[in-house]
From TrEMBL:
<comment type="similarity">
    <text>Belongs to the short-chain dehydrogenases/reductases (SDR) family.</text>
</comment>
<keyword id="KW-0560">Oxidoreductase</keyword>
<dbReference type="InterPro" id="IPR036291">
    <property type="entry name" value="NAD(P)-bd_dom_sf"/>
</dbReference>
<dbReference type="GO" id="GO:0016491">
    <property type="term" value="F:oxidoreductase activity"/>
</dbReference>
<protein>
    <submittedName>
        <fullName>3-alpha-hydroxysteroid dehydrogenase</fullName>
    </submittedName>
</protein>
<dbReference type="InterPro" id="IPR002347">
    <property type="entry name" value="SDR_fam"/>
</dbReference>
<dbReference type="Pfam" id="PF13561">
    <property type="entry name" value="adh_short_C2"/>
</dbReference>
<dbReference type="GO" id="GO:0008206">
    <property type="term" value="P:bile acid metabolic process"/>
</dbReference>
Amino acid sequence: MGKLDNKVAIITGASQGMGASHAKLFIKEGAKVVITDVKEDKGTELAKELGDNAMFVKQDVTSEDDWKNVIDQTVKKFGKLDILVNNAGITFAKPISDLTVDDYMKIVKVNQVSVFLGMKYASAEMKKNGHGSIVNISSIAGLVGTPNSIGYTDSKYAVRGMTKAAALEFAPYGIRVNSVHPGAIDTPMVHQDNIGSAVDEFISAIPLKRIGNPEEVSKMVLFVASDDSSYSTGSEFVVDGGSTAQ
């Protein structure tokens, strides 16, 4: 038996990187998975690869209408919603002096507002079932400060706080809300041209002396999403090779 047998999950930003890894493991563990992303070609291809228990829905996670559509399509296809993984996120490295308001708000909308919208609409559906697990992907940048990343850092701190507030609000309905905090993980995000040197410097300081892989984060997300973590809510789960232990 799989850890997610008979569960239905939505995973945002799941056409590649960590999101795709989460989707693959969830399917392997028995879940039905709705993959969402703005990258339609990659998302459609991944859903096809994963088979009948996967579906792709194009989504701008900052759009309230898109969130309503994703929830509607999920319930129409699979009948219910048990798990939400708010995985979508963006970053770029700039000092505060060079960061425009547009840059800043773009990061906040994708990393923070999308999590609010996801929790708002997913929880409404989960309340009908009397249970649910929401996993918000934050970062170790939501635990410690990071230079030249103010938009990313404060949005990930916000996800951490939002998780705790929602956990208390949703607990009476049997809905758990937790955050996962990856460190440096080998995904397309860390290979962006504008942050490469900062990532290399960060990796050299990791106690385990290596970058993490997406599958290592996915195993933590699986634990948090599943009933194995049934007494955890409002908690922080760190996957960082010891970076925040220093």
